[in-house]
Amino acid sequence: TLSSTRRGLWNDRLNEIKHEPLFGVGAHSIRAEYCLSEHSQITTADGTIEPGSAWLYIFSSMGVFAFLCFCVMVFEPLYRIWKQGKTNSLGVILFSQLVFFSVYMCAEAHITASGDFTFVYCWLLIALMDSHNRNEYNLLYPHIAWIRRFAYE
């Protein structure tokens, strides 16, 4: 099953988070001494790794601050469209695709692998959602407005 092959990788990422929570172990890297799973795949010849989950990998490699910024980039556009209640068909399509990628990132970390098609597609999708929300709400910087709204409440 999916969880049986990923559980070890997820435990490795959680182990990295436990040891380096604030700043992570380094962008786009993992620490071999924290990888205790037999499923950990580190190829030193070409530098490829299998992190197991984009969410955990972003947190473990770049720390809590980068993880929170990433969550704002993903969930803020979803929140805006959800809050709107009714939207045009473009908003529905963008919303459903970003929800799909949010779930997909639990098991795969292609969003962090530059050069991969899903990397380009997911980041383009986040930018399209941001542009869609900017047009709907006439905001220059919707992320800043979202943060300001919660900071002053």
Q: What is the rounded distance between the termini?
A: 45 Å
- Listing every helix as H and every strand as E from the N terminus to the C terminus, the arrangement reads HHHHH
Largest sheet: none
Structural class: mainly alpha
Helix % is 55-70%
* Shape by Cα distribution: globular
Count every helix, treating DSSP H or I runs of 4 or more residues as helices. Answer: 5
Strand content: under 5%
Stretches with pLDDT under 50, minimum 5 residues: none
Mean residue pLDDT: 76
Question: Which radius of gyration do the C-alpha atoms yield?
Answer: 17 Å
State the total count of DSSP E strands.
0
Task: Write a structural description.
The chain contains five helices and no strands. It starts with a helix and ends with a helix. It has about 150 residues and is an all-alpha fold. About 65% of the residues lie in helices and about 0% in strands. α3 (about 90-105) crosses α4. The model has no long low-confidence stretch (mean pLDDT about 75).
